[in-house]
Design goal:
Blueprint lengths: L3 E2 L3 E4 L2 E5 L10 E4 L2 H9 L6 H17 L4 H12 L6 H14 L4 H28 L6 E5 L14 H10 L3 E7 L6 H13 L3 E4 L4 H6 L5 E4 L3 E3 L4 E4 L2 H11 L3 E4 L5 E2 L16 H4 E2 L6 E2 L12 E4 L6 E4 L2 E3 L1 H5 L8
Parallel strand pairs: 5-6, 5-8, 6-7, 8-11, 9-12, 11-16
Antiparallel strand pairs: 1-2, 2-3, 3-4, 9-10, 10-15, 13-14, 16-17
Helix pairs in contact: 2-3, 2-4, 2-5, 3-4, 4-5, 5-6
The structure holds 5-S-methyl-1-O-phosphono-5-thio-D-ribulose.
Length: 341
């Protein structure tokens, strides 16, 4: 396969490399990803993360395994193992459905490579279209709040919600970005803060619990988040803490926008209650683990609830900013996301 390089994915020497998003921003470590078990490990540990990026990394690995001689039947098994690696972001399943069609072809090696590279190029274009559509909603002097990480690290392109913010900044419309640190794994504090710094966007990092008082003080003009799955009724699964922001925005009369590519839409999922929510290791909440050292502050026997995502009901969303344009609450109520007949 040709050499390929995005913010957090590379293909070189016929191998997939991922930028370890658990080591950022202090260390830039590129991890070799030669096989399915390694990629599944990276995905589960959130070394590679973000709805679009998970799907792209799985697709690229399948294509590389095919090029390196893996037979069709084993590739089919590998595809299903990758599909099961994380349950909530539907981009993974949508991308792998397309890879499965390529795998069924007689010339499956060429077809898989073609499809994986096409998915990467499409994602870049989807990000640009989302940024254009979202930018039209941003007023000069905006103070925006974002949650988790939705930038170039999480996609092959400029990102989703963060791509909108970056474009609005280029046009001189951003006064300040409030960055939720995003407990427990700190995607905001580590990744979004780093990306905004690289882009030169003015930001201030806050603990998640500080958002309410900022809204009460009229310091937030709009909230911009990404999505891991959009159900047919417009309900949105995104990083845990998103729902609280939507409730707060509703109370304070602040617009709440969800930015995502159409690959995040699941027309066959009727509503948020049907979205599978990943539950994660208790140690993410009882302390911090890994490169920060293993620090535990909770008692040894603390019982923990640690869902990675929550569901924001459609009624709390002001607009779904897709690559195809801004979808309004009236359009969602009219069934625009329902299965096509
Ligand atoms: O657990 P993560 O870090 O993969 O969660 C990521 C999010 O919730 C993002 O908001 C979402 O995937 C959109 S990324 C463009």
């Amino acid at each position: 396969m040709q050499t390929l390089s995005t913010t957090s994915l590379q293909v070189r020497d016929n191998q997939l490399w991922i930028l370890d998003q658990q080591a950022l921003p202090q260390q830039k470590i590129w991890c070799p990803t030669p096989d399915v078990a390694t990629l599944v490990g990276h995905i589960k540990a959130l070394r590679v993360r973000g709805a679009p990026l998970i799907g792209l990394s799985a697709s690229l690995l399948l294509a590389l395994l095919a090029e390196n001689g893996m037979p069709q039947a084993r590739l089919a098994d590998a595809l299903e193992v990758l599909r099961a690696s994380r349950p909530t972001a539907v981009n993974l399943m949508n991308n792998l459905d397309r890879m499965k069609l390529a795998l069924a072809q007689e010339n499956f090696v060429t077809a898989l490579t073609f499809e994986a590279l096409r998915l990467v190029e499409e994602d870049k274009a989807l990000c640009n279209s989302i940024a254009e559509a979202g930018n039209a909603l941003i007023k000069p002097g905006s103070r925006l709040l974002t949650h988790c990480n939705t930038g170039g690290l999480a996609t092959a392109g400029v990102g989703t919600a963060l791509g909108v913010i970056a474009l609005a900044h280029q046009q001189g419309k951003v006064a300040n970005i409030w960055v939720d640190e995003t407990r427990p794994l700190l995607q905001g504090g580590r990744l979004t803060a780093w990306e905004l710094g690289e882009l030169g966007v003015p930001y201030q990092l806050i603990c998640d619990s500080m958002a309410a008082s900022l809204m009460a003080q009229q310091q937030v003009d709009a909230i911009w988040v990404g999505a891991d799955r959009i159900a047919a009724n417009g309900d949105v699964a995104n990083k845990i803490g998103t729902y609280s922001l939507a409730v707060l925005a509703h109370y304070h009369g602040i617009p709440f926008y969800v930015a995502a590519p159409h690959t995040t839409l699941d027309r066959h999922c009727p509503n948020g209650a049907a979205i599978p929510i990943e539950q994660r290791d208790a140690r993410e909440v009882t302390g911090v683990a890994g490169r920060f050292g293993d620090v535990q502050w909770a008692p040894d026997n603390a019982r923990v609830y640690n869902p990675a995502f929550d569901v924001t009901p459609a009624a709390l969303i002001s607009g779904w900013v897709l690559d195809t344009g801004v979808v309004t609450p009236a359009q969602v109520a009219g069934g625009i996301f329902q299965p096509r007949v």
